[in-house]
Amino acid sequence: MFRIYARYSPSLWFLALTFLSLLAWLWGTDLAIAEPLNANPPPQLPAALAVAGTMRDTNLSGLEQNILVASNRERRQTGQTPLLGNETLAEVAAAHSRDMVARRFFAHDNPDGLGSAERTGLYVRTLFGLVSENLAMMSDRPNLAEEFIQGWMHSPGHKANLLRPDSTDLGVGCAQTVEGGMQTFYCTQLFMNVYASLAQPLPATVNAGQTVEVWLSPHNHQPLPTRLLQVDARGWEMASVVLQPQNGAAVGRLILQGPPAQYRMQVEVPDTANAQRFWIIPGPFVTVR
Predict the structure, then answer these.
(1) Residue pair 98/188 in contact by the 8 Å Cβ criterion
(2) Which CATH number is correct for 47-194, 3.30.70.20, 3.30.565.10, 3.40.640.10, 3.40.33.10?
(3) DSSP secondary structure letters along 160-222
(4) For residues 119 and 30, which has the higher predicted lDDT (pLDDT)?
(5) Is the peptide bond before 245 cis (omega within 30 degrees of 0)?
(6) pLDDT in tens, 28-39
(7) Which end of the chain is more exposed for a tag (fewer CB within 10 A), N or C?
(8) What would the 3-class secondary structure string for 72-133 be?
(9) Secondary structure of 148-170 in HEC code, one letter for each residue
């Protein structure tokens, strides 16, 4: 239903998107800013992400840029800070759009069970933060970027993502195909509230017992993290290190532990409003062999 309306009528597309957003809210939408860790993440980078950045359709760069510009226009009009265009996030977004075209699905979770949080953690090797995502597809028409934006703005869940005050970065990635004889575009907005970045990318694969050195710099005057953690798919802590402040960054050496599996790296951040609490911010996945 969504695809039929999206192709043929902008006004019906708005109604359909709003209706689907309401259904998603009633049944438990995955539009929340922090998605749960997949219980059984795959042992290696999926093919759709392994080629991220190598198959970007340059013919779509204008559409992607126009969506980014229009997104920031909507944010300015509501008093929100404009988002930084993030090319790495755009590569992940474009990979998901291409994957939807190639494997003929339309969802935040791909057929491998990976949502935006997992896909970002697998590919983005330097950033710690929380993500959210908007998707849409429609047939070619005048002012295509504006049609995408207005569709999202007329859906409460998607509008909330687009205007979320704590988001800092946005990657837009699109793909095109022919469906029903019509040129059709799939577009993904991948938002991130970037907490901190690493001076050097984390390796995707390491040996058990290998030491990883980190130099982690918070963004936007955020507090320094106090610990770096290696967490398994159940959320259990496998290893950790206390980070030391140095020249405005948090520095440490973590010895990664087995058994062979895929683990999520996280940082522990003190809650400035309550000294008894802390926040856990997710980062990249690392496979220990």
Answers:
(1) no
(2) 3.40.33.10
(3) HHHT-TT--EEEEEEEEEEETTEEEEEEEEEEEEEEEEESSPPPSEE-TT-EEEEEEEESTTP
(4) 119
(5) no
(6) 323 322 232 333
(7) N
(8) HHHHHHCCCCCCEECHHHHHHHHHHHHHHHHHCCCCCCCCCCCCHHHHHHHHCCCEEEEEEE
(9) HHHHHHCCHHHHHHHCCCCCCEE
**Global pTM value:** 0.81
Q: How far is CA 233 from CA 1, 42, 132, 190, 237, in A?
A: 35, 10, 20, 23, 10
Say whether 4 sits in a helix, a strand or coil.
helix
Name the one residue in this structure whose structure tokens are 């001076």: 199
Q: In degrees, to the nearest 5, what angle opens at C-alpha 201 toward C-alphas 175 and 61? A: 20
Which pLDDT score, from 0 to 100, does residue 172 have? 97
Instruction: Using the predicted structure, report yes or no on whether residue 115 has a pLDDT greater than 50.
Output: yes
Please tell me the predicted confidence (pLDDT) of residue 57.
Answer: 66
Q: What percent of the chain has pLDDT over 90?
A: 74
- Please tell me the CATH superfamily of domain 199-288, with its number: Immunoglobulins (2.60.40.10)
| Per-residue CA distances from 149 to 14, 100, 136, 264 (Å) | 10, 20, 9, 33
H/E segment holding residue 265: strand 261-270
Q: List the chain domain ranges.
A: 47-194, 199-288
In this prediction, residue 41 carries a pLDDT of 41
Q: Are 2 and 20 in contact (CB under 8 A)?
A: yes
pLDDT tens for each residue of 149-167: 999 999 999 999 999 999 9
